[in-house]
Design brief:
322 residues, alpha+beta, Rossmann fold, Dna Ligase, domain 1, D-amino Acid Aminotransferase, Chain A, domain 1, five-stranded antiparallel beta sheet, four-stranded parallel beta sheet
């Protein structure tokens, strides 16, 4: 591709992963235009044309300081941007409608560009949820825990009796919950069958058998590159869910069994992913058990702790060097 083509970085302004990718691209002298969807439509202009004959869109994205032609975009790094912010001058009855128009208008135009994407919104939505992931992981040849998704207390108790051991409960899908003024993610919790009660019937719950751990692994995959890192938990909370106590963690680059690596490649091919943050349990006997894959998961904390070149791998993929 010509050197002047630009990588679009669509992310929140305070996103450390996006910061690292922008820096790595800048080191390679690759032009970058970074913006948050929250800037559209008040501080960002889109003028996209379709002439009724060509297969794609052409036109321009413009901010107060720069502009880029859509046909000059070489790749898009799309990472958890905010939602479009609509002017307060818009009647509240129409504000949500206007936000939807802005979101679809911008994202659908960008998503049709024939360029490399990381975290394409359509791919992310298809790959983001645990029930589908478990089926895909099994089809890919990965080991997965025995799992039940239910809102039936009686069925949950019947299933738990077949496990005959400790269980965990986790959200079916990612999403923050607001408690007071604080947004937080619900962690995985270890439970016993006696903990199951009528509250289970209020919504869908995902129950799994507890898998005994030697350690966990966060496997960051960028294109064809794999960065497996062992996570050693130093507290009871981190042993159940390492996200619950980051201060108690130690990180160590590790190897990955070829059988597991091959399964991960099949999993990613199933969804069309070129990035994934995979979580595995390594059992005391050394077996790798798949827990989940976040197709837009955090990785900067792994890179900072291990000095692995994860940002550089992103830059290579977006630059088109791999």
């Amino acid at each position: 591709m010509p050197a002047q083509r630009t990588v679009l970085v669509v992310a929140e302004n305070l996103d450390p992963s996006a910061d690292l990718v922008v820096h790595a691209l800048s080191e390679r002298r690759v032009p970058v235009m970074r913006f948050d969807l929250a800037e559209f439509p008040q501080r960002l202009d889109l003028a996209a044309h379709h002439d009724g004959q060509k297969s794609g869109w052409y036109g321009e994205l413009t901010t107060s300081t720069r502009a880029v032609r859509l046909e000059e975009v070489r790749a898009v790094y799309y990472r958890r941007p905010g939602l479009p912010e609509i002017s307060r001058t818009v009647d509240p009855a129409y504000r949500e409608w206007a936000q939807g128009q802005a979101l679809v208008g911008m994202v659908q135009v960008l998503s049709t560009l024939p360029v490399a994407w990381m975290h394409h919104p359509d791919v992310y939505r298809a790959a983001a949820h645990k029930p589908g992931q478990l089926a895909a992981a099994t089809a890919a040849g990965l080991r997965v825990p025995r799992t039940l998704v239910t809102n039936s207390l009686s069925r949950a108790r019947e299933w738990a009796a077949t496990i005959n051991g400790p269980l965990i409960v986790k959200p079916v899908t990612a999403g923050a919950i607001t408690l007071g003024n604080r947004n937080m993610m619900l962690p995985t919790r270890r439970i016993a069958v006696t903990d199951l009660d009528e509250s289970l019937e209020l919504t869908a719950h995902l129950l799994q058998e507890w898998v005994h751990k030697r350690n966990e692994v966060r496997l960051t995959v960028v294109g064809e590159e794999m960065f497996p890192v062992a996570i050693h938990a130093g507290s009871p909370a981190a042993t159940v869910d390492w996200r619950a106590d980051y201060d108690a963690l130690e990180y160590e680059p590790t190897g990955i069994p070829e059988e597991t690596a091959a399964g991960v490649r099949r999993f990613m091919a199933r969804y069309g992913l070129n990035y994934g943050a995979f979580d595995f349990v390594v059992t005391p006997s050394g077996n790798w058990v798949f827990l989940e894959c976040n197709p837009a998961g955090q990785w900067q904390f792994i890179a900072a702790a291990t000095q692995l070149p994860i940002a550089e791998a992103h830059a290579s993929l977006l630059q088109g060097a791999v």
